[in-house]
Write a structure and sequence with these properties.
Elements (H helix, E strand, L loop, with lengths): L53 H13 L6 H15 L4 E6 L10 H22 L3 E6 L12 E4 L2 E4 L19 H22 L19 H23 L14 E5 L3 H6 L1 E3 L6 E3 L4 E4 L9 H6 L6 E5 L5 H11 L8 E5 L6 H13 L6 E4 L6 E4 L2 E5 H17 L4 E7 L8 E2 L22 H18 L9 H9 L1
Parallel strand pairs: 1-2, 1-14, 2-5, 5-8, 8-9, 9-10, 10-11, 11-14, 13-15
Antiparallel strand pairs: 3-4, 6-7, 12-13
Helix pairs in contact: 1-4, 3-4, 3-11, 5-11, 8-9, 9-10, 10-11
Length: 490
């Protein structure tokens, strides 16, 4: 970016030889004095679309700069406060949603189903463990997807890879990156977030009537009965409280839910980055929480440079290719003030190799003294191909989660959350679980990675509530036990 109105394309190799203006951890300055929303442009960048019409791209970006933000700094600070409690072991983080949202899924039924499954999962965890849950949805902006190759074969023909609805079309005849899709992504995000807010304000999450949270997509009788048992006990509790008029607290009628996405397209993220009206801080107001993916977390890369300057709570995907020394640098660059709730490490290894990597990553972070939230993504590392179709085995997903709890406990650490790819629909993309899914062809509808279906997602909540209760430290005393149910669900 050579000026306010001049934009140049930065590909994967460009500016690799540029001098670094970010000070690293080895005794150097870690302040943000040299940071700006555009300073990432001085760094090498990966996974960016190559637009043919730069003038059209700049018009789209200017449109985004002129539009109002999706979120407010106060909401973001609220989330950071909630995540600080997760960091201290007082709450548990539940993050989930589609692998990649599609514009065509921006409709009432789809949004409702994903919203309700997050509520249902958190209800199970709260009731069985008495541990408060922080809910973050992979919604209202999770459109872009990094790809391992710029091209792919469709029906034997090599075409440009589908990189998400905010880049190009799934239709093979429209695979050229289209900058107008950035503006379309904004408006689809606004519509999704608006309906999420409407459901929260409208009392969809009212605990007085949890039976309204539809279970028609739950195929497994055992999972349905387990969930209904929880609901019946909650209703019975409220009937008792009603006798004393103790069930009227506002917290029982509403919940907090925050939005998140992988901040892949930095042109888009920059356009939605705004300076606070009350301080010199910058916030990305396109979401509450953002994360850096496994393919773009290079220490000297543009994504790390952008992330180090925003006030949002942020995450980083950590996998088998992450070197312990690299992780040490990352946590100190992204959380130099050592703030609780600022940084979440989202681990993705695979059930077979998590024990080979997680312990050394825990030790590396512990040596820095930087507080982080450890969050397990048990989906990505367990992806496999069966007869040419990508899938994930439910048993492997559950195994990695259980091993994560165990390994953290053994190494003086704590697993603070889970990060799952799911849908509220009755898809058949992951095999196994209480639903007994085995035939992927029944309803395999993902445009990217396989997702857990409705039944499998509830099954995970039920199966792992015991682990969460054992490993999450929460502070309650006898005198506030009566308030626990209200505060936990909030």
């Amino acid at each position: 970016h050579t000026g306010s109105n001049t934009l140049i394309h930065l590909d994967q190799a460009t500016v690799a030889s540029q001098p670094s203006c970010r000070m690293e951890h080895d005794g150097k300055d870690l302040s943000n004095s040299d940071w700006s929303p555009t300073s990432w442009r001085q760094y090498p960048i990966k996974q960016q679309p190559e637009y043919k019409n730069i003038e059209e791209l700049e018009r789209s970006l200017q449109k985004l700069r002129d539009l109002p933000p999706l979120t407010h700094p106060n909401e973001i600070q609220q989330l950071k406060t909630e995540l600080a409690a997760v960091c201290r072991g007082e709450k548990f983080l539940l993050q989930g949603g589609d692998c990649a949202e599609r514009f065509l899924d921006c409709r009432q039924e789809s949004i409702e189903s994903k919203f309700k499954i997050l509520l249902q999962m958190s209800l199970i965890v709260v009731w069985k463990t008495r541990v408060p849950v922080v809910r973050i949805a992979r919604m209202a902006g999770q459109f872009a997807k990094p790809r391992s190759s710029p091209t792919e074969k469709v029906n034997g023909i090599e075409v440009m890879s589908f990189k998400g609805d905010n880049v190009n079309s799934f239709d093979v005849s429209a695979r050229d990156p289209d900058p107008n899709r950035l503006v379309l992504a904004y408006f689809h995000s606004v519509a999704t977030l608006n309906y999420l807010r409407a459901m929260v304000a409208g009392g969809v999450a009212d605990l007085h009537d949890p039976k309204r949270w539809d279970l028609r997509n739950v195929l497994s009788e055992s999972v349905r009965k387990e969930y209904e048992k929880v609901v019946d006990r909650i209703v019975d509790t409220f009937n008792f409280l009603n006798v004393f008029r103790a069930d009227t607290a506002e917290v029982l009628k509403k919940v907090d839910i925050f939005t998140s996405h992988e901040a892949l397209l930095l042109n888009y993220e920059e356009a939605l980055t705004r300076k606070s009206s009350s301080s010199d801080d910058y916030f990305n107001l396109g979401a509450h929480f953002l994360w850096i993916g496994d393919r773009t977390r290079q220490i000297d890369g543009a994504h790390v440079e952008y992330f180090r300057g925003i006030e949002n709570p942020v995450g980083v995907k950590v996998g088998p290719s992450t070197k312990p020394e690299e992780l040490k640098q990352l946590v100190q660059i992204l959380n130099p003030k050592k703030e609780e709730g600022k940084l979440t490490l989202i681990t993705r290894y695979g059930a077979k190799i998590i024990a080979d990597h997680l312990p050394e990553h825990i030790r590396a972070v512990q040596s820095t003294g930087v507080p982080v939230i450890w969050c397990c993504d048990p989906c990505h590392g367990n992806t496999e191909t069966v007869d040419g179709v990508k899938t994930r085995r439910f048993e492997s997903i559950v195994k990695e989660m259980c091993l994560a709890f165990k390994l953290h406990a053994e190494h003086g650490s704590r697993l603070g959350g889970v990060h799952l790819e799911l849908t509220g629909e009755d898809v058949t993309e992951c095999v196994g679980g209480a639903s007994g899914t085995s035939d992927l062809s029944t309803n395999y509808s993902t445009y990217c990675d396989p997702r857990l279906n409705y039944t499998q997602r509830l099954d995970i909540a039920i199966s792992n509530a015991h682990e969460i209760g054992n490993h999450v430290t929460h502070n309650r005393t006898s005198k506030n036990n009566n308030a626990a149910t209200q505060n936990n669900f909030k």
